[in-house]
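sry for the spam today, last one i promise. C-alpha cells for design, 137 residues
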C-alpha cells in the first residue's frame, strides 16, 4: 500500500532554535552565538519524512562558517547571494549547487549579499568543527 504524501507548508514551519536541538545534531555553541548576533537563521523543513532531511538557511553578508564536516552526504543549493569555499574549492552564486561527501572538511564565507540556501541529506547529520584546511577525502 502506498503512503500518502507528506505536505510541508513553508509558512507553517518555525525557524529553528539550535539550542533546542539534540546533542547529536546541535551546532557548536560559538556558531550558534555568531548566528544569533548577526541574525542568521535556519528552518528545518523535512525531518526524516521518507528519509529526507532538508534545511533552509539564511546567512548574513560576510558570515563565516568555519571548517567542519558532517557524517552524511549533503546537497547544497544556493537560492540567493553566494559564498566562497576555503582554499578555492568553489565559488557559488544563485542557482548553483554543490555535493559535499560525508566526512569532507570544508568551510566558507558568505559574499556581500549574504546567502540563502537549501541543504538536503539522507540522514540527520552530526557536525564536527575543527581548525585546519578542508579535507581531501
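last one done:
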Amino acid at each position: 500500500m502506498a503512503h500518502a504524501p507528506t505536505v510541508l507548508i513553508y509558512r507553517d514551519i518555525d525557524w529553528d532554535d539550535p539550542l533546542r536541538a539534540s546533542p547529536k545534531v546541535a551546532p557548536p555553541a560559538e556558531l550558534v552565538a555568531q548566528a544569533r548576533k548577526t541574525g542568521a537563521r535556519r528552518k528545518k523543513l523535512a525531518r526524516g519524512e521518507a528519509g529526507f532531511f532538508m534545511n533552509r538557511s539564511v546567512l548574513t553578508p560576510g558570515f563565516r562558517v568555519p571548517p567542519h564536516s558532517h557524517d552524511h552526504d549533503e546537497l547544497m543549493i544556493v537560492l540567493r547571494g553566494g559564498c566562497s569555499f576555503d582554499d578555492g574549492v568553489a565559488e557559488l552564486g544563485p542557482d548553483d549547487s554543490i555535493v559535499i561527501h560525508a566526512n569532507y572538511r570544508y568551510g566558507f564565507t558568505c559574499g556581500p549579499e549574504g546567502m540563502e540556501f537549501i541543504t538536503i541529506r539522507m540522514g540527520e547529520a552530526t557536525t564536527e568543527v575543527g581548525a585546519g584546511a578542508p579535507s581531501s577525502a
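Residues 15-129 form a domain with the Jelly Rolls fold (CATH 2.60.120.10). ok im logging off now
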